[in-house]
Amino acid sequence: MDVLLLDRHNYHLFQPLLYQVATGSLEQEIVAAPLRRLFRRGSGVRFRLTEVRHVDLSARRVITDSGPVDYDYLILAAGSVTNFFGREEFRRNAHDLKGLDDAVRLRNQLMQAFERAAQVLDASERDRSLTFVIVGGGPTGVEFAGALAELSRQLIARDYPELAGAAAHVLLVESLPHLLSPFPAPLREYALRRLRAIGVDVQLNASVRAAANGRVILEDGREIETRTVVWAAGVSATPLAASLNVSKNRNGRIAVRPDLSLTEHSEVFVVGDMAYLEQDGAPLPQLAPVAMQAGRHAAHVILDRARGRSASPRPGQVRAGRPFRYRDKGSAAVIGRGSAVFRFGGVGASITGFVAWVLWLGLHLLYLVGFRNRVLALLDWGFEYLRFDAQVRLITSDSERTG
Amino acid sequence: MDVLLLDRHNYHLFQPLLYQVATGSLEQEIVAAPLRRLFRRGSGVRFRLTEVRHVDLSARRVITDSGPVDYDYLILAAGSVTNFFGREEFRRNAHDLKGLDDAVRLRNQLMQAFERAAQVLDASERDRSLTFVIVGGGPTGVEFAGALAELSRQLIARDYPELAGAAAHVLLVESLPHLLSPFPAPLREYALRRLRAIGVDVQLNASVRAAANGRVILEDGREIETRTVVWAAGVSATPLAASLNVSKNRNGRIAVRPDLSLTEHSEVFVVGDMAYLEQDGAPLPQLAPVAMQAGRHAAHVILDRARGRSASPRPGQVRAGRPFRYRDKGSAAVIGRGSAVFRFGGVGASITGFVAWVLWLGLHLLYLVGFRNRVLALLDWGFEYLRFDAQVRLITSDSERTG
C-alpha cells in the first residue's frame, strides 16, 4: 500500500492553539509540526508539498500544481476557510485565525497597534489604536478576546509607560443572545461573567454591518473606531469542495454516506470540516476531534476493503463500510488566566474555573505533536503563569491591515 | 537624564546566531529580544519604534518617520548593511543574513529547494535545486556553509527518501587565498580542512562575476547552476551614514575621535559598525564585541560630561573624553557539529575542535539576552546534538528568490 499525503504547507498545524500565537503566548513553531518528520522511518507515507487544484472524480485523478496524481482511494481532508459571508470588505479589512501566517500577521498588528498608541499625540487616534473588535463569540472569539484583554493589561502596565492610565477596549460582538453556542447554558454564563470581569466588552445580539476606514458599524447603527478587526464568526467549506460536482449541504460541506465515502464514488472519502454527516438527527460539528476520529475511520474502511473484508455483493459494487460514529469526549475553552469551561462528553457533566483550566492545559499539551513542542509549550506557559508575561512580542514584518 | 532609544525594529537582534535561524537550528524568537522588555522597570530608558530618516547635526535634531526628536547628546549605532558592491543584480538575486526576516526567508528558500528537488523529474533541475552557493568565506559564510552541509545530509538521509543517493552541493566562494581572514593561519587551515571533510566545496581565490537566471558565473568563467545564492561577502555602512555630511573612510564608515565623538560635533557619538577608528595602526573590526564595548564607552563619556567631570577648558569648547580602547577578548567560529576554532585575545593562544566548540556554545548562550532564550537555545542545541536533527523546518511563506 502506497500512501501519498498532499498538502500546500509542509507542516501540520494545531489550530486550537493558534490564538496563543496571535497573542504572543507561544512561538509559531510550537503549533506547527513538520510533516516529513511525522512520517519518517518506515511509515509508508510519502509527502508532496503542492496545492491541489481540482479532483477529476471520474478519472480518479487529483490535479495539483506539480502535476496529476492518480489514486485508487482518495481521502479529502482540506478543512474549511474563514466565513466572511461573501463580504469582500470583511475579508480585506479583518484578520482571521485560520493559518499560521494569519496568526503571526495578527500578532504583528497587535504589537504595532500598541506602538502607534504610544506615539500618537491625538487622543482619539490613540483610543482607536487601542480598540480591538472581535466578531464571533464561539470558542475562537472567546479565547482570543480573553487572551487579548489580559495581554493588553500586561503591556500597558509593564511595557508602555506612555500609556499609563489608558486602557485597551476589547469588544466581542456576537449575533446570538449568548456566547459559546456549543456549550451548556451554565458554562456560557460563566464564560460571559468571566470575560466581563477581565474587561472584555461583550455585546450580544449584535452583528457587524460594515468594517472599513478605521471604523466598524454594527447593525443597530453604533459606530466603533478601531484599527483592528478580528473575524471569528465561523467557517465555510474550502473552495476545493465547491469545485466538486457532488451533493453538498447549504454551507458547502460535502454530504457523505455513513461510512464517510461518497454515494457516487465509493473510493472517495471526505473527513473533517469538509464533510457533512448527521448523527442522531444533528450535523456533526466542525471540530478537530470529529476530524481526527473520522480520519481514522476512513483509513480503517479502506484497509478493510483492500484486505477484501468487504467483498462486493454484486460485481462492480462495493459494500458500504462500517458506519462512522463520533464519540464526543467533551470540549473546553479557556477564558483567561486560571479560568476555563470544560464540558465532559457523554455523562453531561461540566466544570468551570481553575480545575477546568488545568485540565485544558494538560489535554492541549497531550495533543501537541512532538515531545519537543510539548516541552517548549510547558516552558512558555510556566514562564507566563509565574511572571504574568507573554513571551513573543516581535513585530516581524510590516503587514498591517487597517480595519 | 532622559534616554530615548529609537529603532525600526521592536527587538534587539543577536546577529551572530542568525545563521542558525536560517538553517533551522533555532527559532527566530530566541535570537530576538523585545526592547521594551529589556528596558522595563525604572530603567530610565524610553523606546520608540520608528525609522530614522536623517540627522540635522547643526539643529541637533533627529528626523524620524514619527516626527523630529531634539537631543543634547546623540549616539549613532545604526550598524551596517550587506555589501553587494553596488551590484543591483546581486542584491536582487541573492539572500543575505543581516536581519531576522532575511534569516526566515533563507530558511524558507532552503526548505523549498529540497521540496522542489524531491518533486522534479529532470535530473539537472534537481541538481540545480540542491546546489547552494555561498559568497564570502568570513565567519558568517563559514558557519552558514558548515551548518547547511550538515543540514542537507540530515534532510536527505531522513526526511527525503525521494532524494536517496543524491547529495547537496554546498559551494563556498572566497576571493582571498584563505578562509576566515581575521583568524591566525593554523585556525584558517583547520577550518578549511574541516569544511571540506563535511562536504563543503570550498573555492579559494574565486569570486563571482554574475548571478542571475538560476546560474552563478565565477570570474574564471566557470558556471554553476543554482537556485540559491547566499551573500556573505561583507558589510558596508548603513545609508544613514551616507546621508550625514561628516568625514568618512573609504567604506563609508564615519571617522570618530578617540573618545568616539565627532570632531565637528562633540555631542554626537558613533559606535559599532558605523564608526571608523584606528587602534595600534589598524582599523577596529566591525564586530559585535567592538560595538558593545564602544557603546559602554560612549555612555561613560556622556555621563562624565553631564556630571561636569570634563569641564570645558575654554567657553564653548568641550574637552575630549577618555580615549576608547578595544579589549580583544578573542573570537570564534563554528565549523560544524563538535568542531570550532577559538582564538583567545591578548595572549595569542588558540584552540580548535571539540573543546573550542563547547566554549563557543557556552559563550553564545551567555550572550543571548534573557534567561528564557538561554533555556530554549540550550534545549534546541541539546535536542539537535542528541538526535542530529535540526528543529525548525517550516516553510512559513512563499518568498522565493531564484538566483
Fold topology:
2 copies of one chain form a homodimer.
Chain A (H helix, E strand, L loop, with lengths): L2 E5 L3 E3 L4 H5 L9 E3 H4 L6 E5 L2 E5 L4 E4 L2 E4 L3 E3 L3 E3 L5 H6 L1 E2 L3 H20 L3 H7 L1 E5 L3 H21 L9 E5 L11 H13 L2 E4 L4 E5 L2 E4 L4 E3 L2 E4 L3 E3 L1 H4 L11 E2 L12 E3 L4 E2 L1 E2 L2 E2 L4 H19 L23 E7 L2 E6 L5 E4 H14 L3 H17 L16
Parallel strand pairs in A: 1-4, 8-20, 10-17, 11-12, 11-17, 12-13, 19-21
Antiparallel strand pairs in A: 2-3, 5-6, 6-7, 9-18, 14-15, 15-16, 22-23, 24-25, 25-26
Helix pairs in contact in A: 4-5
Radius of gyration of chain A (Å)? 23 Å
Give the amount of beta strand of chain A, in percent.
15-25%
Q: Biggest interface pair, residues each? A: A-B, 42 and 42 residues
Helix content of chain A: 25-40%
Number of helices of chain A: 11
Distance between the termini of chain A: 50 Å
Low-confidence stretches of chain A: 398-403
- Give the overall silhouette of chain A: globular
Q: Please tell me the overall pLDDT of chain A.
A: 90
Derived structural class of chain A: alpha/beta
Oligomer: homodimer
Largest β-sheet summary of chain A:
5 strands, parallel
Q: How many beta-strand elements of chain A?
A: 26
Strand order of the largest sheet of chain A: 10-17-11-12-13
